[in-house]
Design goal:
Four Helix Bundle (Hemerythrin (Met), subunit A), mainly alpha
Amino acid sequence: MEKELEKQRQTDEYQSDIFPDDDDTPTDLTYPKTRIRLGLFMTVFGYFMFLLGARPGLFGLDRSRVIGFVQISVFLIGLAFIASGGYLTLNALWPEGKKTIAADIGLRLISTGYVISVFTAMADIFGLGSHPLPNVYFGPLQARGMEIGMGTIAAGFLLLIRYKRIKNHRAAAKNGAEASNKNDNPVVNEDLDAVCVD
């Protein structure tokens, strides 16, 4: 009788170490909510800034028939907020130091897409466009370059998404405990199998 009580006590201690009952234990499925909220806020704010620059008529601010320097600057700032907020949100879904190579490539694609967008939209300002500096005009070639840049940003976001979930600590600890106990202590393993059946 005393041996059975000792075995039960060892089993209970072992289970309490591996499977804590409190709900405050950290798991791999918890995310930093502040960073996610900040990233989503930046993305929505950037979207409205992008709309303000691209279509100021939606806000009753359209003053010219062509898209000039101010509008180009505003929608590029909006695109920067969209790219930064999207990156911040999607990066917060990854555990620290556990990003895949595809996610790292996604970050580089987001940055590259934004650089492509800036240099094609501001081609006249940089002296690469067909219009001289006082008459800045957002033409069809610049629009095509912006489309390519935004497509590159979108591809980067797709690569940065975390598709697979990591199992939480309880499931991983349970599987690891069962594997290690099969070799070490068969008596405790039998008790665990009897108690921990899902």
